[in-house]
Amino acid sequence: MPVRQVSRVRALYRRILLLHRVLPPDLKALGDQYVKDEFRRHKTVGSDEAERFLQEWEAYAAVLWQQANENRRNSTEKACFGISLPEERLNDFRDEQIGQLQELMQEATKPNRQFSITESRKPKF
Predict the structure, then answer these.
(1) Is the Cβ–Cβ distance between 34 and 17 less than 8 Å?
(2) What is the chain's Cα-based Rg?
(3) Is position 113 within any domain?
(4) Which of 104, 106, 102, 79 is nearest to 90 (CA)?
(5) Residue 124 pLDDT exceeds 70
(6) How far is Cα 77 from Cα 1, in angstroms, rounded to an integer?
(7) I want to staple 23 with a disulfide (CB 3.0 to 4.6 A). Which of 19, 28, 70, 82 is the partner?
(8) Which domain does 36 fall in, by range?
(9) Residue 57 in contact with residue 12, Cβ under 8 Å?
(10) Three-state DSSP class for residue 98
(11) What is the Cβ-side half-sphere exposure of residue 70, based on CA atoms within 13 angstroms?
(12) Which of 21, 12, 28 is nearest to 114 (CA)?
């Protein structure tokens, strides 16, 4: 990978992890791990695949940055992150990518027990 592309990858990686700081804790943890895994997985791909990979993650970073700014301006409304994936885009995915997408969806939609808050019981007198 050319030096210029390596610095582009590192800058994008850092930018995404910084953008994840605006996400709720559970989504931040999930997103950070997914980004780390994907960047690690694509370390040795060819230049064409690397370029497509970077373009997709740059688009993700741009959308997340825009949504973070919108959420900051509309602080009274519930924060909203993500976009819908059109069904026709799924035709461009390999079977492995479809599997990863399903795993990510399952993980993202799990009830979050780690951060659940239970009401403390007050002593009765």
Answers:
(1) no
(2) 18
(3) no
(4) 102
(5) no
(6) 43
(7) 28
(8) 3-82
(9) yes
(10) helix
(11) 11
(12) 28
